Amino acid sequence: xxxxxxxxxxxxxxxxxxxxxxxxxxxxxxxxxxxxxxxxxxxxxxxxxxxxxxxxxxxxxxxxxxxxxxxxxxxxxxxxxxxxxxxxxxxxxxxxxxxxxxxxxxxxxxxxxxxxxxxxxxxxxxxxxxxxxxxxxxxxxxxxxxxxxxxxxxxxxxxxxxxxxxxxxxxxxxxxxxxxxxxxxxxxxxxxxxxxxxxxxxxxxxxxxxxxxxxxxxxxxxxxxxxxxxxxxxxxxxxxxxxxxxxxxxxxxxxxxxxxxxxxxxxxxxxxxxxxxxxxxxxxxxxxxxxxxxxxxxxxxxxxxxxxxxxxxxxxxxxxxxxxxxxxxxxxxxxxxxxxxxxxxxxxxxxxxxxxxxxxxxxxxxxxxxxxxxxxxxx
Length: 379
Description:
Blueprint: H1 12-33, H2 40-53, E1 57-61, H3 64-74, E2 82-85, H4 92-99, E3 103-106, H5 118-123, E4 129-133, H6 148-154, E5 157-161, E6 169-172, E7 175-178, E8 185-189, E9 203-207, H7 210-219, E10 224-226, E11 229-230, H8 241-251, H9 254-275, E12 281-282, E13 290-291, E14 297-301, H10 304-313, H11 343-351, E15 352-355, H12 363-376
Parallel strand pairs: 2-3, 2-4, 4-5, 5-8
Antiparallel strand pairs: 1-9, 6-7, 6-13, 8-9, 10-11, 12-14, 14-15
C-alpha cells in the first residue's frame, strides 16, 4: 500500500495548509520582535485562552505534563497525600502525582463514556485525599456535578485533566461549563496532535482564583516572584513565544475544526449503521448534556488486535489508546494493584481502537474505513 493511499489517524499537513499564511505571519512577528520566551505574545495567548474558556485566569507552561505537575504543586499536594484518578489514561496523569511524592489512588471507569466513575471516586476518598484528577478522555467531559459538591465540602482540590478536551463543554442545570473551569485548576496539553495543537510542546493551567494563578506563575519560573528571588522551589516550564503565536492563530479556528470533527463522528455513526456492524463494534457514546470534541474517535471492537492488523494491511491507520492500564504498569507495582482490580479499564484496554479522526478527514475516506471494517467482520 503506497503512502499516498494510506488514511492516517491524523494529518497535520492538511491542517497546516489551511492556516499556512496566518502561521507564517505570526512566526515572522515573533522573529522580528526577538522576544522568544514568555513576553507579550504569551500573555496575549493566555488572555485569549481564558476568554474562550470563560476561566478566571490561564497560565501557560511548556507541556501538558508540566501543567499537571504545576497544578498539583500549586494545590499544595505534598509527599504522602493521596490523589484519586483513573487507570485508563495517558501515563502523565499518574506519573505527575508520583513525581511530587504523592500516592496515585486509582478507581475504575464507566464502560460507555470511558470516563472515571464518580461513585467509585467518592468511595475512594480517605482522610489523606488531597486532590482528585478526573480525565475528560478523548474529548468528552466527566459528569463532575455528581461529585463536585462533596469535594468542596471535604476540602479536596479538583484539578481537571483536560489534555484531550479543549473546547469540550457540559450543560448542567441550565448553565454551560467548559472543561477546565469546573474545579480549582484545569490542565491542558497543546501537543501537536491535540485539537488545539502547537507546533511543538506547550501546555496551560486554567485557575479559578488569582492566588492560584499567581502561584503557578511563580512555580513555572523556578518559584521566583522576581528575578533571582525565589519564594519556593519551582520548575522551569516557560512557553516559547513562537508556540504562543501559533496557538493564537489556531485558537481562532478551533470552533470550526471542532464542528468538523463532530460531523465526521456523526458520519461514522451513519456508516456503521448502514453496514450493520452493531454486533461487532460499539461506537463512542456522547453523554447527555455533553459536547464531545472527538479528540479521538474510539470504538470498542471484537477481535481488536486482528482488526487493527487488517486495517493496517488495507492502508488504514488505527491506534490503541491504551494497551495497558496504569495500575498494571511496572513502575506502579509498589502500589499493590493486581490484574482484575479494575475490570472495566482492563477490558477497554483489550477492546478499544481509535479510528482516523481529524477535521480534514473526507467522507470518502470514512467510507473506506468502514468498508474495511465491514470486510473484516464478513459483512
